[in-house]
Amino acid sequence: MTEANEQEDARRKETVRIGGLDGQKVGGNFYEQVGGKPVFQKLAAEFYKGIAKDEVLRPMYPEGDLGPAAERLQMFLEQYWGGPTTYQELRGHPRLRMRHSPYKINPLARDRWLLHMRAAVDSLALPPLKDAELWAYLERAATSMLNTFED
Ligand code: HEM
Question: What's the CA gap between 120 and 32, in Å, rounded?
Fold first, then answer.
């Protein structure tokens, strides 16, 4: 291959690999694509603003300060979507159903959790496909946390 060919080839590969239509870098996992830590921080913070005012859910959270709970949720979601694995390092295996077993999670609790989560996801104004992917997971995860059908 001539040097000119090589250069041309390298340029084309580069274009294919990193060039989005608007010239922005593409690639990376979901965590990176949506904007990394600040986005997950905002998601958890907005969600907990809703929890703080919720008559059904707020009493489930024992701590006066919801900050540490917001941080646990943030770390878990960051890890799930391909970000830092700090959650695992600090809290071990998630075992989320087990960790939620002390709380009464009936359909009402699930719906209220999702209501606040929907508002939090909206606040991120993600591109529609990213929003849909995140939301599908959250809905499924919330339903999997149900542990009673009693009031
Ligand atoms: C369906 C309704 C849900 C309710 C009512 C609920 C409620 C709670 C409560 C009361 C806690 C304890 C607060 C704390 O000390 O951290 C908690 C913890 C947590 N929840 Fe939920 N939750 C729900 C769904 C979910 C879902 C769908 C996820 C994940 C996608 C999730 C992720 C977490 C995490 C990561 C923690 C911290 C676990 C730990 O490391 O101790 N929760 N949740």
Answer: 19
Alpha-carbon distance 20 to 15, whole Å? 8
Mean pLDDT of 88-103: 98
Going from the N-terminus, what domains does the chain have, and what CATH number goes with each? Answer: 29-144 (1.10.490.10)
pLDDT in tens, 120-129: 999 999 999 9
Mutation choice for ligand 1 from 145, 146, 148, 149, CB with most ligand atoms inside 8 A: 145
Q: How far does residue 46's CA lie from ligand 1's centre (Å)?
A: 15
38-47 residue pLDDT tens: 999 999 999 9
- CA separation for the pair 77, 20 (Å, rounded): 26
